[in-house]
């Protein structure tokens, strides 16, 4: 797959007046790939179907980049459709970031067609990224859901757990949503206690990743084990174990912050510099 060369600057406004640039074509949670590309010239959209709506995403290498949602796209040779999860690890970080933003904004636009206060129609503002009610002027901005994600270490071992919906043999770091009224640190201690019954300390913030499933902002930490025996939380955690770093199970692919937290710990154990954080 051809990678874009690279620099993406998100837009702060909602609608692009200039039709030039690049478009991302989206329909029913999937992105169009044509001739090996996920970013297209605007002309391609015309062949594929009617535009339901378009939203400005930002600038990729100086070119405006828009999300275009199509209704009932034509079934043309050479066009395939791909969900974002299936593209993890298959596409470069910059493209993943742009598609992730596109997916989040599509969901936001789709769920804010009507005002939550008075029920009238809403429309995208031109001067900022907001939906505004035509009747009562309520504005709604895209929402993010902050989450903690934490790698817990105990000497040369790390704690990895699996949810009931993970594929067989696959384990990951612990994660959870920050609740109203709660600090990031309180959330981390609560989630670790709830999910595996452990106490941790020495919380170290390492970095963040926007995670568009559907709109999470993942705040990545490393924490050290203090006390407790693992008791998986019923319904949430199917299994959790301490894994020697030389014998890890199936872990998340590169490009995810959970994998990056693991890779950072491995790099430190080997005295290596930390790998770059995924976009
Ligand atoms: Zn209203």
UniProtKB/TrEMBL annotation:
A divalent metal cation 1 binds at residues 175, 195, 236. It comes from the Bacteria. Divalent metal cations. Mg(2+) or Mn(2+). Binds 1 zinc ion per subunit. Its cofactor is Mg(2+); Mn(2+); Zn(2+). A divalent metal cation 2 binds at residue 191. It is an enzyme of class 3 (hydrolase). Keywords: Hydrolase, Magnesium, Manganese, Metal-binding, NAD, Zinc. A motif (Nudix box) lies at residues 176-197. Substrate binds at residues 85, 128, 141, 209-216. InterPro entries: NADH_PPase-like_N (IPR015375), NudC-like_C (IPR049734), NUDIX_hydrolase-like_dom_sf (IPR015797), NUDIX_hydrolase_CS (IPR020084), NUDIX_hydrolase_dom (IPR000086), RNA_Hydrolase_NudC (IPR022925), Znr_NADH_PPase (IPR015376). Its EC number is 3.6.1.-, 3.6.1.22. Zn(2+) binds at residues 115, 118, 133, 136. Residues 142-266 form the Nudix hydrolase domain. It catalyses: NAD(+) + H2O = beta-nicotinamide D-ribonucleotide + AMP + 2 H(+); NADH + H2O = reduced beta-nicotinamide D-ribonucleotide + AMP + 2 H(+); a 5'-end NAD(+)-phospho-ribonucleoside in mRNA + H2O = a 5'-end phospho-adenosine-phospho-ribonucleoside in mRNA + beta-nicotinamide D-ribonucleotide + 2 H(+). One of its GO terms (molecular function) is zinc ion binding. PROSITE patterns: NUDIX, NUDIX_BOX. A divalent metal cation 3 binds at residues 191, 195, 236. Belongs to the Nudix hydrolase family. NudC subfamily. mRNA decapping enzyme that specifically removes the nicotinamide adenine dinucleotide (NAD) cap from a subset of mRNAs by hydrolyzing the diphosphate linkage to produce nicotinamide mononucleotide (NMN) and 5' monophosphate mRNA. The NAD-cap is present at the 5'-end of some mRNAs and stabilizes RNA against 5'-processing. Has preference for mRNAs with a 5'-end purine. Catalyzes the hydrolysis of a broad range of dinucleotide pyrophosphates. Homodimer. This is NAD-capped RNA hydrolase NudC. It comes from Halopseudomonas xinjiangensis.
């Amino acid at each position: 797959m051809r990678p874009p060369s690279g620099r993406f600057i998100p837009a702060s406004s909602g609608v692009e007046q200039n039709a030039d640039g690049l478009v991302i074509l989206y329909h029913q949670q999937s992105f169009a790939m044509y001739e090996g590309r996920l970013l297209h010239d605007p002309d391609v959209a015309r062949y594929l179907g009617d535009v339901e709506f378009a939203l400005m995403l930002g600038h990729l290498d100086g070119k405006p980049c828009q999300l275009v949602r199509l209704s009932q796209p034509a079934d043309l040779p050479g066009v395939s459709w791909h969900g974002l999860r299936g593209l993890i690890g298959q596409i470069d970080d910059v493209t993943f970031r742009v598609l992730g933003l596109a997916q989040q904004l599509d969901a936001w636009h789709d769920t804010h067609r009507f005002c939550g206060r008075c029920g009238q129609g809403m429309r995208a503002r031109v001067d900022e990224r907001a939906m505004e009610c035509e009747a009562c002027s309520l504005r709604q901005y895209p929402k993010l859901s902050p989450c903690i994600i934490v790698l817990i270490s105990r000497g040369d071992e790390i704690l990895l757990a699996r949810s009931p919906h993970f594929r067989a043999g696959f384990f990951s770091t612990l994660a959870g949503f920050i609740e109203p009224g709660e600090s990031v640190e309180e959330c981390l201690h609560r989630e670790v206690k709830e999910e595996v019954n452990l106490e941790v300390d020495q919380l170290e913030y390492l970095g963040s990743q926007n995670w568009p499933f559907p709109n999470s902002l993942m705040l990545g930490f490393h924490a050290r084990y203090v006390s407790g025996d693992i008791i998986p939380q019923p319904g949430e955690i199917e299994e959790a174990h301490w894994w020697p770093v030389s014998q890890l199970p199936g872990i998340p692919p590169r490009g995810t912050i959970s994998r990056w937290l693991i890779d950072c710990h491995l790099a430190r154990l080997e005295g290596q510099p930390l790998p770059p954080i995924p976009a």
